[in-house]
Amino acid sequence: MARRNLAHVEAGTVDQAPGVHRVPASNYTDPDRWLREIERIFRRLPLVLGFSVELAKPGDYRALEVADVPVLLSRARDGSVRAFLNVCSHRGAIVVAEGSGNASRFTCPYHAWSYDADGELVAIYKERDFGEVDRSCLGLTPLPVFERAGLVFAALDPDAEVDLDAFLCGYDELLIHHDFASCTLVGRQTVAGPNWKIAYDGYLDFYHLPILHRESFGAKIPSDALYDAWGPHQRVSMPDAAYRDLARKPEDEWDTRELIAGIWTIFPHVSIAEFDAGGKLYMVSQLFPGRTVGESVTVQSFLAPEAPDAERGKKIAATMRFLEGVVRDEDYFTGKRVQKALAAGAKKHCLFGRNEAGGQRFHRWVDALLATDDAALPELLRSGVE
Prior knowledge:
- The chain is α+β, with helices and mostly antiparallel strands.
- The protein has 12 helices and 19 strands.
- It has helices spanning about 1-10, 25-30, 30-40, 125-130, 165-170, 170-175, 195-205, 210, 245, 310-345, 355-370, 375-385; strands at about 20-25, 45-50, 60-65, 70-75, 80-85, 100, 105, 115, 120-125, 145-150, 150-155, 185-195, 225-230, 235, 265, 270-275, 280-290, 295-305, 350.
C-alpha cells in the first residue's frame, strides 16, 4: 500500500472508479428496505461490539443494545470471551443494565434468577416453591463470538453460522498493527445521527473534508483519496508526500507505525481513525441503526497505547470534546439535513463520483447482501462484488 501511495504522489493522481455510481434516494428513506438491512446485515454478519481490553479479567462484562437486541459480553472463567442475549430464561427480562463492570454473577432484577460469567443459570429464587426445572437448559442464550486483533466480534442471531475468516478476508492481519489488544480504553461517548448509511458514507469520503470541515480542521486538507479493500472492508488514505522520505531507505527499515495512517473501516459499521492528543489516540466509531429509518447512534470509543497521566488525560478529554462536536455539528448536522431533503422526494438518486470509489463499493456490498440468502452468503464473501 505504501508503494502504491508513493506512485500516486509521484504521478499526482488518485484512485478512480470506472464511472459515476447512482444510488436511489429511496435506499436511505424506505422503511421496508431499512428493516431488511437490519435483518440481512446487522443481525446476520459479525459486528464489532467491544474490545479485548475492556474484558481483561474473568467476570469483566459489557451490556449494550444493538439494533434493538440486548447483548451481554463477558470474560468467562477460562479466559475466553462470551456473548449472550441479555434476556432472562424465566420471563424475558433484561438481566444486566447497559454499562460495564466486573461481576461473579448476573442477577435478573425481576425475579432474581442468577447467571455466571459463562451464562449458566446458577440460582433460582425460592427454587423449591418454583418447581423442578433443568437448569442446564436455562442458561443465557449464547451468540457466536470471536476475538481478533484486540476486537470482539459477535453476531446477533444465535443460530448464525459465522465464518469470521471468510468475512474478514485477511483484513485482521492489517488491523493487528494498531495493537488494540495492548491499548487502554480511555473514554466513550455517543452521537445521534441520520440513517446509518448516510452517516457511514462520510467515513468513506475525503471529498468533503476541505469543504464541510473548513472551520474546524479541514481547510488545508486535500480531498484526494486512495482506497484499499479486503472484501467489504476498506482503508481510506490520501497520497502522502512523506513517503518520499521512506523511499530513500531500504524497505526493511520502513517503520510500520508510519504506514497505517488513514481511516480503516470494518463493514458494515466501524470506522477507525488516529489522532494526536499528546500521543497517539484511536477513535473507533461504531454505527448502529436507530429506532427509525432516519436515525442512527454512533458510539465513539477512544483507545490509547498506554494509560494516560493527568496531563495527557486533559488533552484526551479535550480531543474527545472536539471530535464529538465535529461529528455532531458538522457531519451529522449535515447528514440529518440530507435525510430530510431526500425524504422530501426532490431527487431520485444520489451520485458517487469516480473519486468516491469507497462509497460505491460500500453501497454495492449493501445491495448484494440484501439480495443474498443465507445459503449463498459464504460464496458472496469469498467471491466479492463487482
